[in-house]
Amino acid sequence: MIKREEIRIRDPFIYTDTEAGCYYMYGTTNLYGGSLVAYPKFSVYKSYDLENFEEPKVIFDGEKTGFPADRDFWAAELHKYNGRYYLFGSCKSDDTCRTTRIFVSDTPDGEFVPVSDKSVTPDGWECLDGTFFVEDGVPYMVFSHEWVQVGDGEIWAVELSKDLTRPVGDAFLLFRASDNPSVSELEAGSGNYVTDGPFLYKDGNKVRMIWSSFYEGRYLVLDAESDSIRGKWLHGGSRFDFDGGHAMIFTALDGVRMMALHSPNTADMERAKFYKI
């Protein structure tokens, strides 16, 4: 077994398997040394208490499958939909823009395969951190349009087909990073603002989102809310007063609502942290 504090992981995502009485932890794993470069594979850690984890299991290996992307396999997350398990994970190559691809398996730790040979994000866009959200029975992927391409990072959404293999219609803009006054430029005067790690959930009649950016060099977890995914988004401040982010929300086996994130946001020091909310 491996202790939580021994696992280097960014963007931790927890899937609670209530039937099996365990947790599966996905995210950015398989990292090179002290860099943010990741091997072309996705792995999962299994745990029964969120403190002790089994050895990681590779659930998708791009090198063995001839997958077109060969690096930066980041921010994997798992969603159960229509009885199957869908893995959303970002990746890139010299010949392709960064994007989030969708994979499917019959079990949370099974062998995942791409649902399609194409990405659902717009051609020519540098995108990452795609997440899944269903509103009124309609599936969407919400993702970041990267600051490296647009300067002021953006959060977009695209409707998906029922089998999640293709986009339905055009992607639409939710907001820009600078719309939130709690966000500052990466470097003063650069005009560059980051949008990372959106995660959406329903709260009564509201759609809420947590996402991450920076304020004066510190990584943040920020709030946004809307009446619907296509509505106007209103912004809140930082959730925590420390350097940590790319968060998600899950329900523990005992019914307690929890938030997972990585902290600190320093290469080679990142660890999964879990907080009651």
How would you sum up this structure in a few lines?
With 277 residues, the protein is an all-beta fold.
Q: What features would you highlight for this structure?
A:
mainly beta, Tachylectin-2, Chain A, 21 strands, 277 residues, globular, four-stranded antiparallel beta sheet, single chain, 3% helix
What does this structure look like?
The chain is mainly β. It has two helices and 21 strands. The model has no long low-confidence stretch (mean pLDDT 97). The radius of gyration is 17 Å and the shape is globular.
Strand coverage percent: over 45%
Mean pLDDT: 97
Number of helices: 2
Strand order of the largest sheet: 2-3-4-6
Q: Give the biggest beta sheet.
A: 4 strands, antiparallel
Our count of domains comes out at 1
Shape: globular
List the helices and strands and how they pair.
Blueprint: E1 2-3, E2 10-17, E3 22-28, E4 41-47, E5 52-53, E6 57-61, H1 62-65, E7 71-81, E8 84-93, E9 96-105, E10 113-114, E11 127-135, E12 138-145, H2 147-150, E13 154-160, E14 167-176, E15 196-203, E16 206-215, E17 218-226, E18 234-238, E19 245-251, E20 257-263, E21 271-276
